[in-house]
Design goal:
Layout: H1 6-21, E1 28-29, E2 32-34, E3 41-47, E4 50-52, E5 55-58, E6 61-67, E7 74-82, E8 88-92, E9 106-110, E10 141-149, E11 152-157, E12 160-166, E13 176-179, E14 184-193
Antiparallel strand pairs: 1-2, 2-14, 3-6, 4-5, 5-14, 6-13, 7-10, 7-14, 8-9, 8-13, 10-11, 11-12
Length: 198
């Protein structure tokens, strides 16, 4: 029986590991699509969005980054950093790309100092109040996990469920990242479409 050299075995192992750990050719891993490239977005409004490192930054102006693709049932993961005075959010299932707002989308709010705190950070504005009214997100990195499946929407902020609600106003549409008052930064924005649902 022929002996296989240590070098040949090492090369075989490297090849196998490379095949296992190589990213998917489409740029997706586990069904997640990374959206940290401006080619996925359309700027809306007067805002100075910048790409700094691997982050989207806004420090001046009001407006949105609107996804070019429309989504029905999905999961979104996004990390955000805001100054304590910031008014931002993630708007989902938007109906009118020219009029992004709580009347035409579901607004998952980022607004710790909202004058009426009923729909502050962690809420879906005018739909569901947050279970925890005391979470403040200023001056630190936070994570939103947003699941929309049919009429049910679940919002997790830093791992805690803040909203679990059903609402049937909007079934599908693009989503948007908001820039408003204060410094707003987003990173690691990803989406995964949920198949086989309404």
């Amino acid at each position: 029986m022929k002996r296989i050299s240590a070098t040949a075995v090492a090369l075989l192992l490297v090849g196998c590991l490379s095949a296992v750990f190589a990213p998917a050719a489409s740029g997706q891993a586990g069904g997640w699509t990374n959206l940290m490239n401006m080619s996925h977005w359309t700027p809306v409004g007067k805002v100075d969005w910048k790409v700094i490192g691997r982050e989207f930054w806004s420090t001046n102006g009001q407006g949105f980054l609107l996804s070019k693709q429309s989504y029905g049932d999905f999961e979104i993961r996004a990390e955000f950093w805001v100054s304590p005075d910031a008014n931002s959010g993630i708007f989902i299932r938007c109906q009118d790309p020219g009029k992004v707002g709580a009347q035409t989308c579901y607004e998952v709010n980022i607004f710790d100092t909202r004058p009426d705190p009923a729909y502050r950070t962690g809420a879906i504005v005018d739909v569901a109040k947050p279970r925890n009214m005391a979470i403040n997100t200023g001056n630190k990195w936070n994570t939103y996990e947003i699941t929309a499946k049919g009429p049910r929407m679940i919002i997790r902020l830093n791992g805690d469920v803040t909203v679990d609600v059903e609402d049937r106003k909007f079934a599908r549409g693009p989503f948007a990242l908001q820039a408003g008052v204060g410094v707003v930064r987003f990173r690691n924005v990803q989406i995964r479409e949920l198949k086989g649902t309404t």
